[in-house]
Amino acid sequence: MVHYDKSKYADLGAAVTSLQWDAITDLVVMIEVGESNPAFDSVLSHISQIANYSSGNTSLGQGNLPSFPIRSFLPVDLSKFYRYNGSSPAPNCYEVVIWNVFKDPISISQAQLDMFRTVYGVNLNAQGNYKMVDNYRYIQPLNGRTIYYSSAVTISPMRALFIMALAISSAKIL
Ligand SMILES: *[C@@H]1O[C@H](CO)[C@@H](O)[C@H](O)[C@H]1NC(C)=O
Ligand SMILES: *[C@@H]1O[C@H](CO)[C@@H](O)[C@H](O)[C@H]1NC(C)=O
Ligand SMILES: *[C@@H]1O[C@H](CO)[C@@H](O)[C@H](O)[C@H]1NC(C)=O
Fold first, then answer.
1. How far is the CA of 53 from the centre of ligand 2 (A)?
2. Could you tell me the CATH number of the domain that includes residue 13?
3. Distance from residue 47's CA to the centre of ligand 2 (Å)
4. How many Å from the N-terminal Cα to the C-terminal Cα in the chain?
5. Which stretches of the chain score pLDDT less than 70?
6. CB 44 within 8 Å of CB 113
7. DSSP code at position 67
8. Is residue 14 within 8 Å of 6, Cβ to Cβ?
9. pTM above 0.90, yes or no
10. To test ligand 1's pocket by mutation, which of 50, 52, 113, 129 has the most ligand atoms within 8 angstroms of CB?
11. Cβ contact 151:6 at 8 Å
12. How many structural domains comprise the chain?
């Protein structure tokens, strides 16, 4: 889930090219193959209307995606997450993103995942086609950065204060 401050940036592209380290805040959820997850059905039931670059149809068309609760895509426990300063995962990979990666994954069934893998995107993947698979960026060096972990159990009071301050400053972005 990608966030930027609409009062500062006209659109996502403007946030990216601002080159500010806090231009974008991403909330990231790991997805593990297992139980079927009804949250995905709100998107999957409209998957055929979603952009299909290969067939030259990149519009959502009529019958826009009905609204659905974003919360249903987040893990139950939001208090456990990792935070670090990073970059946009797509070229030019500008360092403009505060990454917040939740510790607990959510689930997706293999059948649901297979449906997502029928979708075509706008970027070439590692296999040289437009299927939205294998389009991840390789792990990057830490480059002197610190990765923070939110758990109150393992952190000192000073560090907890620091993380709270960060949470407040990124809440403004959200
Ligand atoms: C996208 O287009 C390709 C090629 O026409 C087709 O095989 C595929 O099923 C389409 N995907 C969706 C989700 O409609
Ligand atoms: C693109 O797909 C949408 C949804 O399926 C459809 O309504 C629209 O007519 C298509 N447009 C073109 C140019 O094929
Ligand atoms: C990200 O970088 C900014 C600017 O250097 C710094 O103030 C902030 O503490 C960093 N945040 C994290 C999570 O490392």
1. 12
2. 3.10.200.10
3. 12
4. 10
5. 51-64, 151-174
6. no
7. P
8. no
9. no
10. 52
11. no
12. 1
DSSP β-ladder status, 24-28 and 31-33: unpaired
Kindly state the tokens that stand for 1.
Answer: 């889930």
Residue in 45, 59, 62 to alter for ligand 2 test, most ligand atoms within 8 A of Cβ: 59
CA of 131 to the centre of ligand 1 (A): 10
Q: Which pLDDT does position 13 carry in this prediction?
A: 93
- Strand positions, DSSP E, the chain: 2-4, 24-28, 31-33, 81-86, 97-102, 106-108, 148-149
Distances (CA, A) of 35 to 29, 45, 46, 118, 133: 16, 18, 21, 20, 21
Domain ranges, residue 61? 2-173
Distance 90 CA to ligand 2 centre (A): 27
